[in-house]
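Entry for the shared binder. Reason: the reviewer on the internal report wants the predicted structure included alongside the sequence.
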Amino acid sequence: MRAMILAAGLGTRLKPFTDHHPKALALVNGKSLLQRNIEYLQQFGIREVIVNVHHFADQIIDAVKENNGWGSEVFISDETDEVLETGGGLLRAQGYFKEEESWILMNADILTDLPLDKMIAADELFAQKAEGDLMATLAVTNRTTSRNLIFNAAGTLCGWKNNTTGEEKWANPLKDKNTAVPKAFSGIHIVHQAFFEAIQLKGKFSMIDAYLQLAQHYAIHYYDHSEGILLDVGKPESVEKANSLFKP
């Protein structure tokens, strides 16, 4: 299985560090977020990774070369001309996954102890039950967040809600909203090859928008890892917390 680490974002929440560096190279106990996520994937036998770059792209490219991919074969998807968001970034890297039935997609600024092997096993089970209609399995937790993915009682994606503004987007509106299962997305996905065949969006778009479009006709499940560690290292104070949770 291959993986893609999304590292092209501007990282505005991590200023002033990101005024001069990409967020993927922010250090936690002497290791960059990028290195930590590459080593995290290695724990589950994943040693072929593609990284998309835009903001201070040369720094990421140089770091990968200087460290020999930290033990993995690391490819670069260059978005220096235009950042394509999460969905557009994956679409740009489509050729890298042409021989893969499914792959891992994850944000560079997420640190976790998610048991990826168990998530992969759950995804395989979902795929069997969906009989070819499974597009993705999304890692989620029950934490409080400003935005939730909404699943139905069967565990398939049906909508999205911004808890701050009240905005909602629905793929399959629930007849009874009391049956809604709100979850906080962890920024880690298992995406299936059928995604490229079914998606109608082009250019710059988010994976959430893509999933809401696809969920009208296909299955998108969740894998809950609420009992583990998940840290969005998007703010300076989050880096300090990460230093206490993740050892050198």
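Summary line for the report: Helices lie at 33-42, 57-66, 85-92, 116-130, 194-198, 207-214, 236-245.
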